[in-house]
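Async update (no meeting this week)

Hi team, since we skipped the sync, here's where things stand on the single-chain job. The sequence we agreed to prioritize is pasted below, unchanged from the tracker. I ran it this morning and attached the output directly underneath so nobody has to dig for it. Comments welcome in thread, and please keep replies under the output.
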Amino acid sequence: MKIMMRVFWATTAFALLTGNAMAVEEAEYELLREDGDFSLRLYAAHIVAETTVDTDFEDAGGKAFSRLFDYISGENQPQQEVAMTSPVTQQSAGQKIAMTAPVGQQAQDGAWQVRFTMPASFTLETTPEPTDPAVTIRRVPARHIAAVRYSGFWSKEKYRRNLDALRRWMADNGLKAVGEPIWARYDPPFKPWFLRRNEVLVPVAAPQDSQ
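Output:
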C-alpha cells in the first residue's frame, strides 16, 4: 500500500509540475541573514490550502497530495476570476489554481498537516472554497523563519539530521522557536535526488535587531 501511494504521488506530481515548471511561484520572503545553508527569513503573509492526515512521516505527503491536487485542479467553488502566474483553465467543477512552492508538511497532535501555498495575488476573500471538507483555507501571518537548505532523498532520517543542525544554528544565533518545524519540498519526484531543493523551516521569535 505504501509503495502504491508513493507511485501515485510521484505520477501526480510529475503531471502537475511538468505542466507548470516554468511558472511555479515561490512563497515571498525577505532574506535577513545567511550563513552557508542556514538563513533567517521574514515571510510575507500568505494564504494556504491544507489538509491533515493521520499516518507516518514518509507517507503523509502522498496521502494528502491527492486531496490538495484535486482542490487546485478544480474541486472548489470559485468566487471570481483571479489573475494567475501561469495560464488558467476553467473546468465545470471549479477553477484551476496554479501551484506554488514549496509543499509544506508539519506535525500536529500526532498527525501531519500538508499544505500548498496559494499564489500571492490570493486573499481569503478571493481564494476558491474547497468542495472537500477535509481541505481548509487559512491565512498565515507574516513571520520570521529559520531555515536550512539541503539536497538528497526525501527521508525522515535526512529531515531529522537537518532539523538537529538547524536547531544548533538557532541556538548559536540566539533564535527561539515559536512553532513546529516544517518540512518543505520544492521539486518533483523525477528530479535527480542530488539536485533537489529541500528545506527545514522553523518559525522563530523576531530577533531584536530586526524589530
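Quick observations from my side:
Residues 18 and 173 are 39 Å apart (CA to CA).
The helical segments are 2-19, 57-73, 156-172.
Reply here if anything looks off.
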